[in-house]
Design brief:
The complex is a heterodimer of chains A (106) and B (127). With 106 residues, chain A is mainly β. Chain A is built from no helices and nine strands. The termini of chain A are far apart. Chain B has 127 residues and is mostly beta strands. Classes of the chains: A mainly beta (106), B mainly beta (127).
């Protein structure tokens, strides 16, 4: 079955750029999306179709996907961006989530 | 506004059954596919199942195939998850989530983006 791999944690200073990677076999041939989940809350879609933002998602969130990796980039990171982030793709009509990355804003 | 509200969770013994419901409001329910996703305590997200807007297509994670059944009643704006032969590893918060694009089919990538999520209902499988 298809697998997506994310680093367990990423740290960033306020105002800096955070990058979270998601790796999977030929992931660039698929579309990837990203969810943000804050403690005690439901996930929120922040990026879909590799690099598109749903309405209401700040412009500082962006995405890319090529080769075997997708990346979520958060520019000018704010304290409110501290959360768990999950990448997602699909394979053979089944949804696959990455294991999640805890973003800490120090 | 668009809302999803799960219910039906609780504590159940291994081997027993439980049915979850997801009541939808604020959008044309019969035009959107729906997913179930779960999250075990302290763990990541795990996809469970998806059903197309008209109920004609459904798909399951291998971990629940043959035990769980997704269904919907478009006249009641409600999605269901029938869970049989429950195991301790099924313990999780169960979320329902809406497919991003109306009338998206399983060959459309929009079918797999979940743009609205409920708050979840907790299922605990324990003796």
């Amino acid at each position: 079955s298809y697998e997506l791999t994310q680093p367990p944690s990423v740290s960033v200073s306020p105002g800096q750029t955070a990058s979270i990677t998601c790796s999977g076999d030929k992931l660039g041939d698929k579309y990837a999306c990203w969810y943000q989940q804050k403690p005690g809350q439901s996930p929120v879609l922040v990026i879909y179709q590799d690099n598109r933002r749903p309405s209401g998602i700040p412009e500082r969130f962006s995405g890319s996907n090529s080769g075997n990796s997708a990346t979520l980039t958060i520019s000018e990171t704010q304290a409110m961006d501290e959360a768990d982030y999950y990448c997602q793709a699909w394979d053979s009509s089944a949804v696959v989530f990455g294991g999640g990355t805890k973003l800490t804003v120090l | 506004q668009v809302q999803l509200a799960e219910s039906g969770g609780g504590v159940v013994q291994p081997g027993r059954s439980l049915r979850l419901s997801c009541a939808a409001s604020g959008f044309t329910f019969n035009s959107y596919g729906m997913h179930w996703v779960r999250q075990a305590p302290g763990k990541g997200l795990e996809w469970v199942a998806v059903m197309s807007y008209d109920g004609s297509n459904k798909n399951y994670a291998d971990s629940v195939k043959g035990r769980f059944t997704i269904s919907r009643d478009n006249s009641k704006n409600t999605l269901y998850l029938q869970m049989n032969s429950l195991r301790p590893e099924d313990t999780a918060v169960y979320y329902c989530a809406k497919v991003m694009l109306e009338r998206a089919t399983m060959t459309d990538h929009y079918y797999y983006y979940m743009d609205v999520w409920g708050k979840g209902t907790t299922v605990t499988v324990s003796s």
